[in-house]
Design brief:
Elements (H helix, E strand, L loop, with lengths): L2 H14 L7 H8 L3 H10 L5 H8 L13 H11 L4 H10 L4 E6 L2 H16 L3 E5 L2 H7 L4 E7 L8 H7 L5 E8 L3 H6 L3 E6 L15 H33 L1
Length: about 250
């Protein structure tokens, strides 16, 4: 501390022995400095604010400031705590059967599909395509294709037309939804529907207004599993080659 800071500190701590209710403006006047100088000084000593400084040198227990989490942060915390890795297992059982993957999304979900495509290209030798057009998607798919559709609610737009138009091609369809809605399974007449969480976002939000954070969590878990599998296969190959060369 500088001589000035030490002088101010000594004056303040003497007062705090008798008066724990000392205000920062009063402390500034006492030390003949500005309140901003007091604030800088207490942060220099490692305190978050003048209140913590008073609590410490007044012999009280420091009470950390309460941190208010947004409802979305609370929801995501629950999702992470309850994430079921079986989702990844079941996804990969279907994904691994196909060499051609088409990722489809509308609005913000299309951005998720683009991101997934980028990540898959780093760890996969499959042919990966991204689409937000029904016509383009119909021209891409065939019986050797897995179509993966991202949607938070399944209600941003009806997927019936898309699914009916590609059904004759024999394409396998997978719908990845964030929010659980069992009625969609019958309405859309497809076998592979993945619900990522039971913790829904506010009903006051329209589909395009809702976050896609859970999609990215799911995507990163898929990529992590694929990378682990690729690394394990590489180690086995290298080990086999080493034995043959001995």
């Amino acid at each position: 501390m500088s001589q000035l800071e030490l002088s101010v500190h000594n004056k303040i701590t003497e007062i705090l022995k008798q008066n724990n209710n000392l205000k920062i403006l009063e402390a500034a006047q006492l030390g003949n400095v500005s309140s901003s100088q007091i604030s800088k000084y207490v942060r220099k000593l490692g305190f978050e604010n003048f209140k913590q400084y008073k609590q410490h040198f007044g012999g009280q227990q420091i009470v950390p400031p309460s941190i208010t989490k947004s409802t979305e942060l609370e929801r995501l915390q629950k999702i992470i705590e309850n994430f079921n890795p079986v989702l990844i297992d079941n996804f990969l059982k279907i994904y691994n059967k196909y060499n051609k993957i088409v990722l489809y999304g509308l609005g913000p979900s299309f951005i998720c599909a683009q991101y997934f495509s980028y990540k898959l290209a780093l760890v996969s030798e499959k042919s990966i395509y991204v689409s937000q057009s029904e016509t383009y998607t119909k021209n891409l798919v065939d019986k050797d294709t897995l179509l993966i559709v991202f949607s938070v609610t399944g209600k941003f737009a009806s997927f019936n037309d898309l699914f009916h138009s590609i059904k004759p091609s024999g394409t396998e369809i997978m719908l990845i939804l964030e929010e659980y809605d069992n009625s969609l399974a019958l309405a859309l007449d497809i076998d592979n529907i993945f619900y990522l969480t039971k913790y829904t976002q506010s009903n006051d939000l329209l589909a395009f207004e809702k976050t896609r954070t859970v999609f990215f969590i799911f995507i990163e878990e898929v990529i992590s599993r694929l990378m682990a599998g690729r690394n394990a296969a590489t180690e086995v190959h290298l080990s086999s080659g080493h034995k043959e060369g001995q």
